[in-house]
Amino acid sequence: MKTSNNELIKSISVDRATDLAKNILTKVMQFRRMVESENTCSTTCTKCHKPHLDKVVTAIMQEKKVRFVLPAFPGKSPNPAKVLGHLPDMAEKQALKFLNSLCKQIQEIYEQGAEVIICSDGRVFSDVVGISEKDVTSYQIEIDRLIEDLNLTALSTFNLDDININSDFDQARSELIKNYGQDIKSLKDKIKKGGKDSNNPEEIEANRMYCGLTRFLVEDRMVPGQTRSKSSIQKECKEKAYLAIIRSNAWTALIAEKYPHAIRLSIHPQACGSKKIGIQLIGIETWMTPWHAVAVDTGNKFILMKHREAKKLNTKLVQDKNGRSSHYELITQN
């Protein structure tokens, strides 16, 4: 059977789009976070590319930006031993600039470039993690301001406020769970199975997420001067972690419905072939996130660490142009 000229042109176009899509994914995966057991997985791994390749090819064929969505930047930890305050600071600035830079790197090989929609999940589980509604609002407003002031044109934001016109956040969260939530018993079963010798990626990821969230919740409640026992706090946080995951998964489902053609990024490490791409928010390997840490200027780069650890070093606190605490600067000995 002969192939028409139109079919031949389309075939070549798809082949070129596929090659370009692979190059784009390879560029992104230079900065990905992998689970420790799979850190040797190549950035060109076919299995890792497969869940995302068609979406990138489609964007290229339609001459559209490659769109990424990232649930992140929820709000600062309420623990002053970890952060400088409740507003975004240099830690967030560096992360936002990195994400924008990654999109610009993609534009160097694909004219239309890429965009990242930051789907802030702070409002989704603020009551669970102990961040006040007021602080979530202030944080979200400041993130938007930073994106504008720093001219980060590849970034935009989306949060629960955008679909909640009445500012009744409890109602918004209830509707989110009603429409997209899952049964807590099935979640607990999945987490339990993921802690054993499971070969199910979803069970393993659920268990990993549960353990990580529990750890963060415990740390956030270990504030200076608190008098509760650690075991009591751990027990409470284990139950709250289930609620946080149910909310997070519901938010993920809503995002997938709203942005069906977007590639899903995650702040959490991912396994080979995952439907999500784990991303390092300041471009270097670190498990910390800006909202659980402070930025420290070492002289040639910024690193993230807990506030209490930064103060132990030979550092000085730096303020921004508005007089707010921004980051620490490492003082080197001459």
Describe the protein.
The protein is α/β, with parallel strands linked by helices and 334 residues long. It has one domain (16-330). Helices cover 49% and strands 13% of the residues. It has ten helices and nine strands. The strands form two sheets. It has a five-stranded parallel β-sheet with strand order 3-2-1-4-5. Strands 7-6-9-8 form a four-stranded mixed β-sheet. Strand 6 (294-297) and strand 7 (302-305) form a beta hairpin. Helix 1 crosses helix 2 and helix 7 packs across helix 8. It is globular. 35% of the residues are buried.
Ranges where pLDDT stays below 50 over 5 or more residues in a row are 1-12
Percent in helix: 40-55%
The strand order across the widest sheet is 3-2-1-4-5
What's the shape? globular
Count of alpha/pi helices: 10
Instruction: Report the sheet with the most strands, covering strand number, pairing sense and barrel closure.
Output: 5 strands, parallel
Structural class: alpha/beta
β-sheet strand percentage: 5-15%
SSE series:
HHEHEHHEHHHHEEEEHEE
Question: How many domains, as an integer?
Answer: 1
- Please tally the β strands and state the result: 9
Mean pLDDT: 88
Distance between the termini: 77 Å
**Rg, alpha carbons:** 21 Å
